[in-house]
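Input record (one chain):
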Amino acid sequence: MSGPALHLAVELDGDGAHPAAWRRAAHSPDQLLTPRRVARVAAVAENAGFTLITLDDGVLPPGVSPDPVGRIGAVERAAFVAASTSTIGIAPAVPLTYAEPFHVSSQLASLDHISAGRAGWVVTEEERPEAARAWGRPLVADADARARESGDGVEVARALWDSWEDDAVIRSVATSRYLDRERLHYIDFTGETYTVKGPAIVPRPPQGQLVVLGRPDRVPGARLDVALVEGRDVASAATAAAAAGTPRVFAEVEVALDTPEATADERVADLERHAAWSDRGRLRHIGSAERLVGLLAELSRHVDGVRLHPLVLDEDLPVLSRLVLPALSGRRLVARPLPGTSLRSTLGLERPANRFAAAAPAAQEAAR
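The corresponding structure, as predicted from the sequence alone:
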């Protein structure tokens, strides 16, 4: 674990974790996909002191009729949020089941440049068969095959981020040279289903490597910076955290909080009349802010952070901001991200050395 501070992330996709959350939202459904909505919710999370926001995504629309379906791409939303925030980390979900890792790595490197080193990446999968048709790709139906695509894709993205050394861009007016081509490298990746030559088309990200988050049962732990672990109780989450084998571990927690207008149980029951809140095997808190503070304090002994999935953003996020984060801060369990600090630094992760630059001195020494 990284120290006494518990890092808090919050998922901001849609109107909340419940599929019918839009029915209790403070805006009309047609406002969900507007820039103003995206910026407002991100600002609330940043002002509250969250370490990180995540934005779910997939090629298929979320939800089913009669609930609203549709979303703007997570990377596009993240880029917009990056320009309107200054301290909070931003991690879009990008599945690798069918997407080209070369393009994914370029998008994410660009996001890290836009955010001045505050970008992360939640590695996910496309599980529904319709996704293959939407991509125009052969179906990847087997869970092991999807895990292989995710693992290979992360390895390719990481190699491409290193394919430009940090000082590859020289911008020499005197010699009319923009790049030092000796500091660009082929990655020469060969996997089971594709090969990638490289190098990248975007300079190395400010963080060197973005913070990569994902499930350790779907992506090898050695390729993750943060494991996202599940468990229906603290003991299960603690066991999963101990087995993760990653530098940092975040527990997944779904929350429905008491509000001045209704209790958490009443709010959940109201939404359950329209759709079921699917059990995804995550720890779920339904109740008061005070009890949530106690739960998070207990989790802080086992994990480095928690990713919260609020029932309804417009109702739960204000309670988190007013009651939960201040109480955790009072206990010195959380720390607010500092301006000018990268996401890696906030999480206590070192900026990794470039694999190609590090290999050059060794190769020169061996040649002597």
